[in-house]
Structures are given as structure tokens and as C-alpha cells.
Amino acid sequence: MRELIVSNHALGDRQALDRIWTEHGYWFFRDVLDQDALAALRREYVSQLKALELVDSEDGEPLWNGRPIVDFPATFDALHQRRVWQSFVKDPRINAFFEEALGDEIYWIPIDYYRLVAPTPGGDDKAYLGLHQDGMSNPGIDFVTCWIPLNDIDEKVGGLVIAEGQHERGYMDVVDGKVGFTAGPVIPEDSWSRAHYRPGDVLIFIKSMPHYGLGNSSDRFRLSLDIRAVRRSSNLPVVGTVKASSADQVTITTDESGDVTLYIDDETNLRGPAPGSPNPLPIVRAQVPEQLPPGTAVMATREGERALVLRPHL
Length: 314
Ligand SMILES: [Fe+2]
Known about the structure:
18% of the residues lie in helices and 31% in strands. By secondary structure, the protein is α+β, with helices and mostly antiparallel strands. It has two domains: 2-231, Sandwich (Jelly Rolls), CATH 2.60.120; 238-312, no CATH class. Strands 16-15-14-19-20-17-18 form a seven-stranded mixed sheet. Strands 2, 3, 4, 6, 11 and 13 form a six-stranded antiparallel sheet that branches. The longest helix has 17 residues, at 35-51. It is globular and about 50 Å long. It starts with a strand and ends with a strand.
């Protein structure tokens, strides 16, 4: 598989960073995130695995102790409740890095994406875990995805794979349950790119970048954080609590701009809560009052007074 291009040399040079972004749609930086902040984050993850009695030690690599892995959780509510990613990005050392890279103050979209992937020895390590683009169902907001490895992730441990050079083809479609570009050629095999990821590295990529996660056929868990950043100078999402909702409109009470009312139409991408899953489920307009009642924490994106996306957030 192709090796990601490292962009550390361009840090501090806005024009060089912008050139790389325009051409490649991603920046891969080596060893730029503070190791103490990462260690604190990793300890939170590992304590969850320890509580499941799947690792023996809280230090070093999260080696699987061999106990049967049954009903491995799809989400880790305790990490959400402890506001683990929020504390991580508040760390001045971490915040400063992302502000420098993006050249602006940053608004972090409130979506939890704690990734803990259990090993499946003998499994197909080339398994496609959901080819997609993060922008496919998130119109109205210009975010970048920041993928942060928390342990040593070689090809067996798996991790993120992106399609170099394929980010300017628009969005893929789902046809007969299969995701891919319907116009033009299929994604060339030699565009798939990855690296041997280590704590300290970060891969930041554009929302139209096709990507997937390799399976984990190693002897350890794979730990990563996947968070999304918006430049403060661009369109921010409407984040707050539902004050009133119907099939036609929603009023959201926000900290930053008081009450905001947005209209819902047939084009609005609506999602409702999906307990036990990080991915809210699609709903239709008639379900809005019941699925997103007053008091629900939600995020919306907008075009004028129209909601493009309306979804609960954790
Ligand atoms: Fe993704």
C-alpha cells in the first residue's frame, strides 16, 4: 500500500500547507502532538478495556490478554460522560498545534468518535470497514477530520486508509448497498495510502476524502480518536437544546446565539438517537417531535433559515 506523504516540513509556512492541502486533500504530521496529553487520553481508553477485563496492564501497548471478547461495545458511554475528547482538545499544547495547522481558532464539532477496535486474529486484515467520505451526510459545514492514533498501529493493527488523489470527485453513492463513485473509474488500487502510525502523529483530511479502516488482525487493541474541526471564521453549526420541534421546524436554544429557529423540509438530513451506536439513525419528518423532543441536545447545519442537517449529539 502507498505510504502517506509527511508534511512536517511545511508547518509554519501557510502557503506550503495550503498547496499541499489543495493538491492532496490531507496533511499527515509525524510526532507533533504532546505525549503527556496523549498518555492521559490513552489511559482513559485503556481503563475501559481494563474494566472489561480484556487487558492486564494500564501501561504500554494495549495487549489483549486472550480472554474471550464477547459483546464488545460499539460505543463507550463512560468516555463520553467524562468528556474525554473535550479535555484533550482543551489542553493548550494540543489546541495550539491545531490552531497553527489550520491557521485559525477552532470550533470542535460535538460528535464523539472514540475508536476502540478489538483484535480478531486470523481475520481478514484487508477487510473494508465501511468505505465512506465524512462529508457524505454532513452538508452545510466545512469541517476537517483529525484522526489521532493512540497506540502503535502497524499494518496488522490496521487503521485508517485514504484514497490519495480521489478527493476531488464529489461524493460517492450507495448502489445496492455498495459504496463507490458512479461516474468515472473505480478508485485505483494504487491510490490507497496509509502509514505505520504512532502516538504523536495526526492525519487531517478533507471531508470529501474516501477512506476506510483496515481490520485488526494483531495481538492488541487499536485505539484512536476521530474528531472534527471547523475554522471559527467559517460557517459554524447550530448546537444546543431543542426548545420546540415539529415536522416543519425546530427551535434550538444555543449558548452563542440564543434561540434559533430553522425550517425542516424533505431535503433536510434528519437523524434520531440510536442507543448503543455512535451513528444516529435516519428518521423522517413526521418522527421529529417524538425523536427530537424538547430537551434533546442537537446539532444542525443551515442554509439561511433552512436546516440541512438536524441530528442529536451525545
Ligand atoms: Fe470517517
